[in-house]
Design goal:
The structure holds two protein chains of two kinds.
Chain A (H helix, E strand, L loop, with lengths): L1 E3 L6 E7 L3 H12 L4 E4 L26 H5 L28 E2 L30 H4 L1 H5 L9 H15 L24 H14 L3 E3 L37 H7 L3 E5 L1 E9 L4 E9 L5 E11 L3 H9 L24 E2 L3 E5 L18 E3 L18 E10 L8 H7 L4 E11 L7 E9 L5 E6 L4 H20 L3 E6 L38 E3 L14 H20 L4
Parallel strand pairs in A: 1-6, 2-3, 2-9, 3-6, 4-16, 9-18
Antiparallel strand pairs in A: 5-12, 7-8, 8-9, 10-14, 11-14, 11-17, 12-13, 13-14, 15-16
Helix pairs in contact in A: 1-7, 1-11, 5-11
Chain B lengths: L24 H7 L1 E3 L2 E3 L12 H7 L13 H11 L8 H11 L2 H22 L8 H12 L6 H17 L3 H6 L22
Antiparallel strand pairs in B: 1-2
Classes of the chains: A alpha/beta, B mainly alpha.
Chain lengths: 564, 200
């Protein structure tokens, strides 16, 4: 059943905080196994009424052309690529829910959705597996804390998750990018095919379709993609993966999960005598009342820094530095991805008539990581690696000269560009961290997060390499007017934050074990990307889900044995 | 979705959880209408409710007054029509007025400066504002400003105005249809590359 925040029952087997990629899976996995689960979501319910992927611009009041309107209440969220007039109310109000930054270290915290399904309402759907090459990088290059698990540990759960969410992709047989269980792939365009072949010939690098969590075949009552384009505004046929109409729905449908919306969880409640989590405290967004709810197990899936915020706000005399933080690493080793350095070029030879009326493939291509990868040239300037996302654009010639009917005609000359942008690992550093800013509270009275985040030499060098290599590949493919774009000075980050509640084998250096269970509190788990000790270059959502399901299975086994 | 949707209906006191309110797959297929190579739902989808009503209601509002443009409205309307023919029918000036009314002062001033530059040129050449010029005079003026030297303030002003007008025109229903938009949002497949090297 689903209840608003003011009508929830009081005690459950498991409390899951957050209904995004991992929270939805935790709720589904545990409730379908018979456990009584309360799923607490800070945002409101998601409904099909909110979906607008087929709505033309001219039906909007401002036709999605008046960002200034949203800058008043959402000056940060409106910077996100997926933010629009269509879905502005899926995101938090930046004034009501602020955060702070160190004076000389600006940081854009974007994608703070407040709706069931979290960021997976608006994600890019890229579903890549981590390889041992990246998971074991700390063991190989000596930097950072090793992952306490290997590819073989996650692989069965990748299979399970991919079968359920539906991923289409091209099997490439690469050790450094393990193939998934794919539905038939979206087709590549001629330009992409040309680029793939030239780059393979010249550099031995692989360009493939982005493995994408969008269906090309019907699956479990969800329809195959109908190529309308803007998945980030919803999907009437439920073709892309969104917990709101998949995992969360399944969980609620099991009869064992209560979804509690508008519940801003701010604290884990502890039993000091037993050193056990006994529940959570939350603020009802509608009434602003503080409430408590209890469970045998507490799982945070609130998002990287939101989970850390809850733990830091849960300090007790037994846990003075924040929950389960005797290692002192809670909030530290914050990492994201570089995501802006690359290049674009024109390919007039692949011109096709531009049109607003054609089918749109909701995916781009992916250039598999090659730098610092086995069998490929290494860089002397930086550790770790990056891959590229690539997107083709066939646009109208808006810059054509003239006016009147001649301009209208000239508009039809196609402008074909191909852009590739590197997405790579930022090294986890102790001095990149979040803490509680006790001087600032949000509209719900909850102390906010303060960021201390800046780029280091490694990511600067990686971004430079990503830009130069992009230009090099475009040149090899015959692009004209190549425009190399560097990383911007202010960290505009893709939403791939990780690391602030990291896993590890050594309790002195980490907070969680390999099953995302706190070393210090047996019935407390953190199953989102905050648990990742490094941030491998592939987009993390698929791994977030797979590792979460693995941990849920461990949790159930422990509960059966009476260990928890 | 199958006939018996796998998504439960869940009643709550304050909100509706994601339920089966969207149309079913079977219903979709019933509505499919063959349109060239693609399949179309055309105007049958609930999302299209009110599609044609939006423009009509604006046009029918006799009491409408500019929010921002005030004395410049006529000039903008005539410039829009001259630069992008069809703009009057697409109510471009009216929509620009709405956008400008919610823009920040920097954006508003940029617009007014660009408009002033064109009007100054009109006054200089014909001793009259743009909206009072004959068709031939308008053509002469726009030819001059659109071919002004690269980097000149005049060309820059023209391009800014054209950009605003084009954005507003081509985001209207009329403009979007000129660029190939149809009501169809359902396609059976993507076009595949047929080049020999595409045989992967």
């Amino acid at each position: 059943m689903s209840l608003p925040a003011n009508q929830a029952q009081q005690s459950y087997d498991v409390l899951v905080v957050g209904s995004g990629a991992s929270g939805g899976w935790a709720a589904k996995r545990l409730s379908e196994a018979g456990l009584k689960v309360a799923l607490l979501e800070a945002g409101r319910a998601q409904t099909a009424r909110n979906f607008s992927e087929h709505k033309p611009r001219f039906e909007l009041k401002y036709r999605n052309m008046a960002r200034e309107v949203y800058k008043k209440s959402q000056p940060l969220q409106s910077k996100l690529y997926a933010f629009s007039e269509y879905t502005a109310d899926w995101y938090c109000d930046d004034i009501e829910e602020p955060y702070t930054t160190a004076p000389d270290k600006p940081y854009n915290w974007l994608g703070r959705t407040r709706v069931v399904g979290g960021r997976t309402n608006v994600w890019a759907r890229i579903s890549l597996r981590y390889s041992d090459w990246e998971l074991k990088a700390p063991l190989r290059d000596g930097y950072g804390e090793p992952w306490p698990l290997e590819y073989k540990d996650i692989a069965p759960y990748y299979n399970l998750v991919e079968r359920y969410i539906g991923v289409n992709g091209m099997a490439e047989g690469l050790e450094t990018l393990p193939d998934g269980i794919y539905q038939p792939p979206f087709p590549l365009t001629c330009l992409e095919t040309h680029f793939r072949n030239r780059v393979k010939e010249k550099f031995g690098r692989t360009t493939t379709l982005q493995p994408t969590a969008a269906l090309t075949q019907n699956l479990n009552g969800r329809g195959a993609c109908h190529y309308c384009g803007p998945c980030e505004r919803g999907c009437v046929s439920r073709s892309y993966f969104n917990p709101a109409f998949t995992t969360v729905t399944d969980a609620v449908h099991s009869g064992n999960c209560t979804l509690i919306t508008n519940a801003m969880v701010h604290q884990v409640l502890m039993d000091p005598d037993k050193n056990r989590a006994r529940g959570v405290s939350y603020v009802d967004r509608n009434t602003k009342e503080t409430k408590e709810i209890f469970g045998r197990v507490v799982i945070l899936c609130a998002q990287n820094q939101e989970s850390a915020r809850i733990m830091l706000n849960s300090a007790t005399p037994q846990h003075p530095g924040g929950l389960a933080n005797s290692s002192g690493v809670l909030g530290h080793y914050f990492t994201t991805h570089i995501g802006n350095a690359g290049a674009s070029g024109e390919f007039p030879q692949f011109g096709m008539k531009p049109s607003l009326g054609g089918s749109i493939r909701p995916a781009g291509v992916y250039i598999v990581p090659f730098r610092n990868i086995k069998g490929q040239p290494a860089s002397k300037d930086f550790l770790r690696t990056y891959g590229y996302e690539g997107y083709t654009s066939v646009d109208f010639n808006w810059d054509a000269p003239g006016y009147g009917e001649a301009y209208k005609k000239a508009l039809q000359t196609p402008q074909v560009t191909f852009d590739i942008t590197g997405w790579g690992e930022i090294l986890p550093r102790f001095d990149n961290f979040v803490e509680i800013d006790s001087t600032v509270k949000d509209a719900y009275g909850i102390p906010v997060i303060k960021f201390h985040v800046s780029d280091g030499e490694n990511e600067d060098a990686m971004a430079k390499d990503a830009m130069e290599s992009a230009g090099e590949m475009l040149e090899a493919a015959g692009a004209k007017n190549i425009n190399r774009h560097p990383k911007p000075p202010i960290p505009y980050r893709p939403n791939h934050e990780a690391g602030v509640v990291r896993m590890g084998s050594d309790p002195k250096k980490s907070i969680l074990n390999q099953f995302q269970q706190a070393h210090e509190i047996q019935n407390f788990f953190v199953m989102d990307s905050s648990s990742f000790p490094t941030n491998p270059s592939p987009n993390p959502a698929l791994s977030i889900m797979a590792i979460c399901v693995r941990s849920c299975d461990y949790l159930m086994e422990q509960m059966k044995r009476g260990e928890i | 979705m199958p006939e018996n949707s796998d998504t439960p209906r869940i009643e709550t006191t304050s909100e509706t959880f994601f339920s089966s309110e969207s149309i079913s797959r079977r219903e979709l297929s019933k509505r499919l209408v063959k349109l060239t190579a693609a399949l179309s739902l055309a105007g049958s989808h609930p999302a299209w409710g009110g599609l044609t009503a939006s423009g009509v209601s604006d046009a029918a509002d006799a009491n409408w007054k500019p929010l921002f443009l005030a004395t410049n409205y006529e000039a903008v309307e005539s410039l829009a029509e001259a630069i992008i023919p069809g703009s009057t029918n697409a109510s471009v000036a009216r929509f620009m007025d709405l956008l400008l009314s919610v823009d920040n002062p920097v954006g508003q001033n940029k617009f007014l400066e660009a408009l002033s530059a064109i009007q100054a040129e009109s006054n200089q050449r014909f001793n009259a504002p743009f909206q009072t010029l004959s068709a031939a005079q308008r053509d002469s003026l726009l030819t001059a400003v659109s071919t002004a030297p690269e980097g000149s303030a005049l060309l820059s002003s023209f391009l800014k105005l054209r950009g605003w007008i084009a954005d507003c025109y081509y985001s209207s229903e009329m403009g979007m249809m000129e660029l190939g938009w149809t009501h169809n949002m359902f396609f059976r497949s993507m076009h595949s590359c047929t080049l020999p090297e595409a045989n992967l």
